[in-house]
Amino acid sequence: MSFDGYKTVIKEGDSVILYLTINQYYILEAKNTAVSKKGATVQNIFQTPYGPIICGDLIGKLYGTKIQLKKGWAYVLQPTPEFWTEILPHRTQIIYSTDISMILFYLELKPTSIVVESGTGSGSLSHAIIRRIKPSGHLYTFDFHETRAEVARNEFKDHGLGEYVTVQTRDVCTNGFGKEMENKADAIFLDLPQPWLAANYTTQVFKKSGGRLCSFSPCVEQVQKMCAALSNLGYQDIQTVEILQSQFSVQKKKMSVLNLNILKTQNDGKCEKSEKEYVNFITSVLPNSLPGHTGYLTSATFPPCY
Amino acid sequence: MDNIKVGDYIIVQRQNYTKLHKLRSHGTMALGSFIIEMDNVIGEKYFDTFQIKNVPNTKKNYTLEKIEDLSSISTSLNVEQSGSDNRNIEADDNNQTMSSEEINKLKDEDLSSNNILEKLISNSKTFNTKTEYSQEKYIKKKSKKYFEYIQIRKPSIRLLAQMFYRQDPAKILGIRIDYLSQILSYSNIQSEGTHIVYDSGTSGLIPAALLESIGANTCGKLIHMHPGNECQKVAFLAMEFPEEQAKRCINVNLYSVLRHYHQTETKGLKDACDRDVDKQSEENVEMKEYEELEIMETENNEQPEAKRRKLDKSNWQVDNELACKLLRDGVHSIIITAKEHPQSIVDALEPFLLPSRNLVVFSTFKEPLQELYFHLKNDLSFLAVKLTTNFMRNYQVLPDRTHPEVNMTHGGYLLTAIKVKQ
Ligand SMILES: C[S@@+](CC[C@H](N)C(=O)[O-])C[C@H]1O[C@@H](n2cnc3c(N)ncnc32)[C@H](O)[C@@H]1O
């Protein structure tokens, strides 16, 4: 229940980030009991590399504080869409925070926006959309996969976001977005294998005042078809970009300096080895292997019609 | 959508070029080599398209005529016959038989890029022997120069950010849209809470973008700290936020607010804050109106100096008190887009940041952020400290001719971290 707004105290049922190190963090539920695989009610215990944690004990603790574990300590943090994207259970390919940030920006979202999204997938993007548009905006998200839609719907509810989002099972490429969605949206986002098919139905979905559309596609052929379709449908400002983020490893380094000046004066060679000199410096290095491609982002404006 | 009215900030778009303009009655705007009378857009709608037309009997003055039927604008000329390669083309500047005087005359008589283009093409000895590719390139280049249609757009953060960056990245401290987009998500800013931004000069873009994310009719607040007497605010004004929303951005001078916070006795401060709220907002309104006036009528500024001083002073104090009161309760994000070294700014502001809340610092340089990285990790209670950079590429998408754009920009660096309680 802890994705909506800023919370100070951990309440029963909250999702909590348990942060050990930059590469080790987990999400758990602050609940005394859990249901085991066999269907029995058991004490809710979460195993970490630093030892087990009794999840119910977190209730009443403050977000951002330290928790003692058997072999070390951890911090409890309030989850954010960025954390969620990193640790959510994958049901599909997902979009990551770098692209998500651009998508929200291109869609010009703010806390009143009505947004249409398809497909819902694993709900990675949806969480970030909801944060930007609540409390008075709404997300309508469509996926033709029944179970995925169901899982996402429950997740939003568990995260306390249910009131901001409507999940529908629907094939938007063959059936469009439905009569109820006509003239409703400020923004539309598509992450589909054939977005141009759904694009045909988008023009009715926008409010009379027009709006913004964005589409994410991994392949350049998809982008070409999509851009052609958007242009035929009367979209303007059609732009395609690719964006990648890389994270530095910031390091303090020490480098030895060879003293070669000494060789200019006569010397019997005795002190050369003993006089080692060093310089210290800070540097940032990129990892050897980096993600080189995620997808292309195509964005466009649908002009108002009077 | 509202009609365009005098006093509005509008974005004038001519193909890919955009320019911000404040509409006055009987005002003109310079666009490329044109001086355009803007009165004809008043009362029309955003997104309308206008044709630039020469005012008869003037050389340089142009006026705008609304285009009702957009289908009449053929964006591309029908080009027939194209060579399959360019073996017959010689590098020759004299391929154009029209003189520049003739071209200018054409421009003054009847400005229609298609007409001009057609004449240019028919007077070009080599056009028909160019490959389709170079024909297209030629048309693109020429039609850009003589393109006579403009569209009026309502400013948005996206349009403003792209416009400033294209005009001069320095106007917004080099913050490209991808960094701006990340500042908005990694700060975890939303419609509630109190947020601090220290911004040393992005033409008001960063505070405007943050306030847009906080939203209208919400309870979120932004404390905008700046280094000077007056903050930069072009982008902020261009967004024309409703007053209710604009008022939740409290502009304070960084030194002045921190001095106030540390040196005003807690008791005195509390009393000051408990003062009649109505009075505060009244003063705020008065001040806002005054400021607007000042911006609009800089040429005829006859406001008595004394009154101005008085207004200024009480406004500062009220804002400082308001900000200090909020600071006392803690803030839900800190965003720093500074020209200065960020470390001392972080040191001064991070005590206000609540546990489990985010810090985001943008810099055009990597070194200050590297130092800050170790400072946050070793001396302060932050975790998940990350230093990142972006790669962003625009694409030309055309059937069989899709490729990255020839030029690309390099961005800056972003440091993010989460505050915890030790
Ligand atoms: C790559 S996933 C979306 C991931 C999502 N953007 C995220 O960040 O978690 C694509 C989704 O689109 C759905 N989908 C594919 N074709 C569809 C269609 N015609 N109508 C509705 N959903 C469709 C799939 O079921 C899948 O869940």
TrEMBL record, chain A:
Residues 72-301 form the tRNA (adenine(58)-N(1))-methyltransferase catalytic subunit TRM61 C-terminal domain. S-adenosyl-L-methionine binds at residues 122-125, 143, 171, 191. Pfam families: GCD14 (PF08704). Its EC number is 2.1.1.220. Coiled coil: none annotated. One of its GO terms (cellular component) is tRNA (m1A) methyltransferase complex. GO terms for biological process: tRNA methylation. Keywords: Methyltransferase, Nucleus, S-adenosyl-L-methionine, Transferase, tRNA processing. It is found in: Nucleus. One of its GO terms (molecular function) is tRNA (adenine(58)-N1)-methyltransferase activity. It catalyses: an adenosine in mRNA + S-adenosyl-L-methionine = an N(1)-methyladenosine in mRNA + S-adenosyl-L-homocysteine + H(+); adenosine(58) in tRNA + S-adenosyl-L-methionine = N(1)-methyladenosine(58) in tRNA + S-adenosyl-L-homocysteine + H(+). Belongs to the class I-like SAM-binding methyltransferase superfamily. TRM61 family. Catalytic subunit of tRNA (adenine-N(1)-)-methyltransferase, which catalyzes the formation of N(1)-methyladenine at position 58 (m1A58) in initiator methionyl-tRNA. This is tRNA (adenine(58)-N(1))-methyltransferase catalytic subunit TRMT61A. It comes from Henosepilachna vigintioctopunctata. The lineage of its organism: Eukaryota, Metazoa, Ecdysozoa, Arthropoda, Hexapoda.
TrEMBL record, chain B:
One of its GO terms (biological process) is tRNA methylation. Keywords: Nucleus, tRNA processing. The keyword Nucleus applies. It is found in: Nucleus. One of its GO terms (cellular component) is nucleus. InterPro entries: SAM-dependent_MTases_sf, TRM6. It comes from the Eukaryota. Belongs to the TRM6/GCD10 family. This is tRNA (adenine(58)-N(1))-methyltransferase non-catalytic subunit TRM6. It comes from Henosepilachna vigintioctopunctata.
